[in-house]
């Protein structure tokens, strides 16, 4: 697998060693955000010999810890989903309650955290997460 994307530089900038497996996982998430570890593994196992599901889980944990990838937990999702983290990106998610499709939705107000609680209890708010639950047009047509 040839390393021609920006993934190697992102890994180096985060202080992580560049490996074929890490690059492949990062590229898979760039191509298909909101993917579970199992989905990433399924995409890679045909092209990357020797990759195992526990390896993908470990890489996702490393990438999440380094701030390159964001873990997204959504209602009704069988497992955590992952997407590439962009320092300048502040968005929420729209999730179809029928098929589970997930799409990004721009922040309701602007800069992070973009939502403020009525009382912060002395804490500095870093992030606010909103999940809009809906039915996508494909599922609506099927009904």
UniProtKB/TrEMBL annotation:
Entry protein name: Transcriptional repressor
Subcellular location(s) of the protein: Cytoplasm
UniProt keywords, alphabetically: Cytoplasm, DNA-binding, Iron, Metal-binding, Repressor, Transcription, Transcription regulation, Zinc
Stored Pfam families: FUR
Family affiliation: Belongs to the Fur family.
Top-level taxon: Bacteria
PANTHER family attached to this UniProt entry: TRANSCRIPTIONAL REGULATOR FURA, ZINC UPTAKE REGULATION PROTEIN
InterPro entries the record matches: FUR (IPR002481), Fur_C (IPR043135), WH-like_DNA-bd_sf (IPR036388), WH_DNA-bd_sf (IPR036390)
